[in-house]
Structure formats: structure tokens, C-alpha cells
Amino acid sequence: MKIAQHREKLKSIQEQVLHQEEIIKSVSNVISFNKDVSKIISECKKRAVNDSFKILIMGKFSAGKSTMINALLGEPILPSSPVPTTAIITVIRYSEEKKAVVHPIPGKWKGVEGKYKGGDSQFEVPASELRDFLKIDHRNKNVFGEGVVYKEGDVIYSPFDKMEIYWPLEILKDGVEIIDSPGLDDPTAHDKITKDYISNADAIIYCMSSIAAYTEKDAEEIKKIRLQGYKCPMYGITYYDFIRSNGQEAEEELKEYIDLNLSALSELSTDKYKKLLGTDGIFYLSSLEALHAKNPYDREKHVDSGYAEFEQYLENFLIKCAGGEKVDILVSMFKNNIGDCMKSINHYLSTADAPLEEFEAKYRAATGTIKNAEIQADLFVRELNLEINAIPDKIHPLAELFVKDLVAEFPVWRDSFETSVKTEVLHLKRTATAISEEFNAYLQSKIDSYTREWIDTKLITALNTEMIGISQKMNKRGNDLDEAIRNVKIAMDFHKDATDAGIGGNTSKIASFVYGLFTGDWITAGLGMALGGGAMLRGMGYQFIAGLALGVIALFTPVGLPAMLLATIAAAIAAGVRNVGLMQKNICNKIVSSYTENYSDASNVKISIDKIMGIVENLLESLKEEGKKAAFADIEQIKAEAERIIENKQKRTEDIYKDKEAAGKALQKLDQIKSELDLIAASK
User: Fold this and answer.
1) Which of the given ranges, 178-187, 334-343, 508-517, 663-672, has the highest pLDDT on average?
2) What number of CA atoms fall less than 13 Å from residue 69's CA on the CB side?
3) Strand partners, 176
4) Distance of alpha carbon 20 from its chain centroid, rounded?
5) Which residues pair with 639 in a beta bridge?
6) Region 46-54: what's the mean pLDDT?
7) Closest residue by Cα to residue 659 from 32, 31, 25, 38
8) Which helix (H) or strand (E) holds 277?
9) Side-by-side strand order, sheet with 160-167
10) What average pLDDT is seen over the chain?
11) Where are the strands (E) in 580-635, listed by range?
């Protein structure tokens, strides 16, 4: 498979990384390398080892996720049911032996007498018993007895955190992991764990049943996926055989509805990806038909089920998009790092033959030039800090408006809420409690979605606007600093590569930093700075946004009403109302009133705004720190190289000759590695 070729690429890159590390160590006693060199080597080693592909299957319960996985695997190993089934995250990996490893939630697994010991340690189960561990029994009955499930109130939970399944499937053999997740609206599962997997997923397949495709819940969850930074989800429209059985008109109607709503919700529908992959990433699938087509294999049925095209597309996506990006980023980072190392070696070789007295004289003569560069760096940092310090005052009104607008949304969300709780006329208190819990969870979900959208469309946009303004103001100051650094290099006889990237050019550390401000897109900027030789490694930009988003979201998502208060509200309302519709209305009004009171309270509003601003200010402080590092990095490197050269020149003549010879060989080897990387990147 092509995935195996991708792993070979990463293995080749890893070998080259280790080779470069050995070369640098061999001459590090002679040559002063930039501090970023070791960081980037470490990052490259980590990325080259990560050769697995994670495919996350998401969707509401009964969307056909488990049946889809069974169809992909060719065997019905996961339970499927019209009621919520998969209670836990299930990760499927390759193994010649069929087995499963279960991970209990601490303190929850009581065991099964005479069969499985309780406790917190992971344990193996045979493949034949997988369904009993994965399926939620909503009657609190199981072939193993009550040990496999536990109850909290009226809700049944699984005592397991996750399960790992090992299966001899060819697609998994090449490092692919399939992750089955709980239904996003499953009342027995906390969907946070599903969302936590999104940032590490190489591919996300969002499932929707043909019978009820693209509901309000689907729209909400897809928006959250995209706001978390994942822009290329695939869509699996399952149970398509049911639609086909209703005739061509039903098929055309469904496809028109899906294309109208989903084509704009994934970049896979853009011309760029369609040209690369062939289709728009939306697939109409008949999972049971595909499962039957594989045992024994029936090519015609496999194609007719939609899975032949879907599986090929998935493999191409992993390689051409996820895998291709991994390799391209890794090669670019690595090549740039090698270029920095080669420049340091060239600096040494260009001055190695000059007499010590002559070089020391140049160093002394360059003192004024170095001092001027340090003054320029200090001016850059001072001006940058002043500009960044002005940002919070411009963001504060935005935070105030956010808290105010959030409160105004509560009645809107209340009016759009529809309970799925089954009414029990003889148990109105139980019904009221269930409605209270469901509406409370619904409000928290809405707050989470609203907060994410505000961060993405308002807060980050405002910050980016400020960054662009700062970059325009800082551009001249950055150019002055670059010019001062160029003059130092010329004065120090480091002028042979003064026009190279990294020495006064557009990709110098300070220019890269200004570029990062100018783009306003910190994910792209972080990548650009790493690949261009900037002081910041790739990921700093992502951390800026991710840290900001997670910090602000955390301020609002945990504020749901305590279970005791919900129970009190439910009991009070159920006791005095016999009309279920009125009871629901009163419960929702009371809960909205509690939320409104909490968010409208002056002291709480101030605390919320102060916390938002605290998160923004902390992240801006880290930006200032990175700016300072970028401003002084080249100067510190020049001084370190000069000190090392003087130290080397104090050696005996024969030692200097050996050092030069070693440096020359290191230069040749690094150049060979660059050529090898070009071949790896060019191979398809």
C-alpha cells in the first residue's frame, strides 16, 4: 500500500536526522551552532517517529459509526443497535492475534465473579466477548451481570475509559488506527473525550444517517470540529440502501439536500482538493451491503455499496494530504536547519586561516558595530512591547460585549429546545429531573459552541487586526536591525554569505518575526517562521490560538448548574404541575433564570471579563518574550561564534588543521543530506 511508502519516507528522514545529529556532535567542540538547531533536530526526530495515521469516526448515536467500522474491517466485531451502544472510545490497531485490552475508569470496575478481577489495571478480553464490554445495556442487565455497567441516578454508564482492539486487517498493518467514538448526543457518554481526540486526528469521518441527515445537532457539532481547527472532515451518509429502496427520486432529493448543506463545510469540496483527490469527500454508503460483500469478496457489491470508492479516497487522503503535509513540513524544517548548520561551518572556515591577532583586532574594531546592533535590537523590543501593551485596552470592550451578548442568547436557546425525554406520567419527578439534566447539558453545549465561534470570528480576528497594524509599524525598525546585523557580519568577516537566508534577508529571525505579525494567521506564521529560520519553532502560532481558545472556553463550559440544584428545581416544579408541557416550560424558565442571574451579576461579569483579559495578556507576554529572543538571537550567535573562533585559534597548528578538515567533511556530509531530502520530498 502507499501508506507503507509514506512510512518508508519517514524512516529515511529519521535516519538523516540522526546522521545530522552525529555530524554536529563531531564538530561541536569547534563550531558554535545556533541554540535552535538542537531544538529543531529534537522536533524532527519526534515527528519522524510518528508514522501512524489516526482516523476518528464521529457522529450522533445510531448514525451508523460502528456498522461503518465493521464494514471497513470486514467483520462485525463492534455492536450496532438503534439505541446508544458504544459507551467508550475504541481504538483499533493491527495485530496478527485478535484480542482486546480494556482500560477501566479508576474506582469503577468491580469485576465479574469467577471471570474477571476488578480494579484499575488494564486487562485483556477475548474477541468473542468484545460486544459484552462495548454495548450499553439500558436495562442494566448483561450476560456478565451488573459488574459490566454501573448506575448513577437513572443513567447507566460504562466503567471503562477506553478499549484497544487488535485485529489482523491489512489497512491497519501500515500504521492506521481507527477510533470509534461514543455518539455525540449519547446520554450515557460524555462527548468531551471525543472532542479531545480531534486535534490529533489525521482524518475525521463524520457519519450521518440517510434517514435523518444533517440535523441541528449535526450542524452544531460540525461547526465545533471546524472551530477547533480541523477544516477537512469527510462525510459518510450511512444506511443509503434504505434510501435507494425508495427510488431514484428519493436518492436525488437526499443528495441535493446534502450537497447544498455540506459542500461548504469541508475544504475537501474546494477545487484544490477535488483536483488532488477526485471527489468532494461526501460518500453515500451501504455498510451492511459492504460487510456482506467482503465475506466472501464480491467486487460488484463492494463497488455498489459505495465503500470501494470511499476506502480508496481515504487512503489517498491519508497519503496525499495528511501524510504529504507531514513529510513536506518535516523536510522543510530539516533542510532549513541544515542550512543554518552549514552557515555556521562556513563562518568558521572563512576565518580559520586568519592569524589570531588579526581576528582579535577585527573583533575589537567591530565592538562599536555590535553595540549599535544591540541598540537597534533594544529599540525594536521597546517599540514592540509598547505596541503589544496597547492591545488589551482594545480587546476589553469586545470581552464586555461577549458576556452581555451571551446572556441575551439564553432565551433564544430555551425557545429552540426540544426534549427527548420520555414522559412518565406516574413518575413526574423522575421526568422533571431528566428534563432538567438534558436542558442543562443543552445550554452548556450552546455556550461552548457560542464561545468557540466568538473566539474564532471576533477575538482572534481582532487580535489579528492588531498584529497586522503592529507589523506595519515595526517593519522599518526590523529592517534597521537587519541592516545593523549585516554590518556586524561584514565587520567580522562573516560577509561571504551575507545575502543568504538568515543574514539580513527576508527570512532572518527578526524579519520572520515581523512576517508572523504581518500575516495575522499565527498557524501559518508559526510554520513560516520555522521553515524560514525564525527564532520561533513551528507550533508557537498554533499554541497561541489553542491556548487562548482553551483558556477562554474553560471559563464558561464548567458553569452548569450543580446536580443538587437541578434536582431541587425538578422536585419543586413537578410537585405543583401535572401538565408535562407546562412542567418543561417552567423548568427551562427556571434554569435560564439561574444562568442569567449568574452571568448578569456585576461581580461575576467583572470576574469573567478579567479572566478573559488575563488569558489574553499572558499570551501577549509570551509573544513579547519571543520578540525579544528574535531580536537578539543573531547578535548572540555572532558573539558566540567569535568567542569560539578565538578559542580555536589559540590551538596548535596541527589541531587547527584537523579541525578544518573535520569541518570540511561535515559540510560535505550535510550537503549530501540536503540532496537526499530533496529526493525524498520529490518521490511520489
Assistant:
1) 663-672
2) 28
3) 53
4) 29
5) none
6) 78
7) 31
8) helix 271-277
9) 123-125, 99-104, 160-167, 89-94, 176-180, 53-59, 203-209, 234-238, 282-284
10) 78
11) none
